[in-house]
Write a structure and sequence with these properties.
By secondary structure, this protein is mainly alpha-helical. The protein is built from 14 helices and 7 strands.
Length: 390
């Protein structure tokens, strides 16, 4: 071993020695609490090793001894970092940079070229080698005990079971909950009283049913420019505006729509599901909601709105006082977090007009408080309507 290698190894050995010293010192302190005699190492007290000069000890070792000492590593020693627990050292010079593709090709080539180990005895189909397992013979006493077990169900029940058909027995097994005695088709047919499938029996196999194909939803053909123009003109016939699943709405069009909302006095339902709404446009929507006079339902689900912007939208509902339903689930961040959920809960508890909230709240406290407040709002409106009728 060269001198440079020994110099590089020495700090590592010092570190190991200090760690071993520390581990023995901690073990000795725990032992002295229960054992009267102090712990010893090689016939000396552990306290005598505190003043040992590690440099002097390592200077007395030859390069070969230092190399041997460096390779003595405990792989389970938690005091050493994982990269120093392996004693393997590659002494070959690198042949070049790593090429993963060539390495895999070389490994596959070696695997194909390496011959299989010869078998001591060639395989012969049907030949049984060694001892074949046979179940132990049962005694006559055990057979008599099993044959003697009988259940007396009464003459009426025995007659009913002997005269019952196989379908009726399957129905009875399903009612009693013996699921392992039948397949799924038979079990559900018995529970729903549809009649057993023909030809299945006890050994019947459930076959896959033909998948029901439902037609695709028609595309949303709402004219964006015409709808925005009608909102600006405050068309009294435009009560509901549905832009759901329209992917090519630009931010400019959305900004034009939100700028026209405050002056509109007839629009009640606005649906913007899956239109690519971002924080920039959502904040403009929050400002428009604050000035809206007639909007009752707002749906912005499945967009790219961040949790703080959702808080801004919920806060805008406090100033509007007209929105009864707000939905904003399935956004870019699936988890809102405890801080955001508590802010939303406090804002909802201040809102006396909100009746339905479409948000996924993870924490039970927020869920229960929001649900209780929404129920109080619904009860208050119901009581006010009853009082008006009287």
């Amino acid at each position: 071993m060269s001198t440079a290698a020994s110099i590089n190894t020495t700090p590592r050995l010092k570190k190991k020695f200090k760690i071993i010293q520390k581990s023995f010192q901690t073990s000795s302190t725990t032992k002295t609490t229960t054992i009267s005699t102090p712990a010893k190492l090689y016939g000396k007290d552990l306290s005598e090793y505190d003043e040992v000069d590690v440099d002097a000890l390592l200077a007395q070792l030859s390069p070969e001894e230092i190399n041997i000492l460096a390779k003595e590593v405990d792989p389970d020693d938690s005091f050493l970092p994982p990269n120093e627990r392996c004693s393997y050292e590659c002494e070959k010079e690198p042949t070049g940079p790593l090429d993963r593709k060539k390495l895999i090709e070389h490994i596959n080539k070696q695997a194909l070229e390496t011959p299989d180990l010869p078998e001591n005895e060639p395989y012969v189909k049907g030949t049984v080698r060694g001892k074949k397992w046979l179940p132990p013979a049962r005694s006559e006493k055990d057979k008599e005990v099993e044959e003697g077990i009988a259940i007396d169900m009464g003459e009426e029940y025995e007659q009913a079971l002997t005269s019952a058909t196989q379908e009726e027995i399957i129905d009875l097994a399903a009612i009693l909950g013996f699921h392992s005695m039948m397949n799924q088709d038979q079990y559900h047919a018995s529970l729903l009283n549809k009649g057993q499938p023909i030809g299945l029996g006890w050994d019947g196999i459930t076959k896959s049913q033909q998948q029901k194909v439902y037609p695709m939803d028609p595309p949303n053909n709402t004219d964006i420019e015409d709808s925005i123009k009608r909102v600006k003109d405050d068309d009294p016939k435009l009560i509901e505006l549905n832009f759901n699943n329209i992917k090519n709405i630009s931010d400019e069009k959305l900004i034009q729509l939100f700028d026209a909302l405050p002056d509109n006095e007839h629009l009640e339902v606005l649906s913007l599901t899956n239109v690519g709404l971002t924080d920039k446009t959502a904040l403009l929507l929050a400002q428009a909601i604050e000035k809206s006079k007639t909007l009752r339902v707002l749906n912005v689900e499945t967009n790219f709105i961040s949790p703080p912007t959702i808080v801004a939208l919920v806060r805008s509902l406090l100033k509007a006082r007209t929105v009864e339903e707000f939905r904003a689930s399935n956004q870019r961040s699936s988890v809102l977090g405890n801080k955001i959920e508590m802010e939303i809960t406090e804002l909802v508890e201040k809102n006396s007009s909100l009746l339905r909230l479409g948000l996924h709240l993870e924490f039970n406290d927020a869920r229960h408080r929001v649900a209780a407040h929404l129920q109080r709002n619904i009860d208050r409106i119901r009581l006010s309507r009853l009082n008006q009728r009287k």
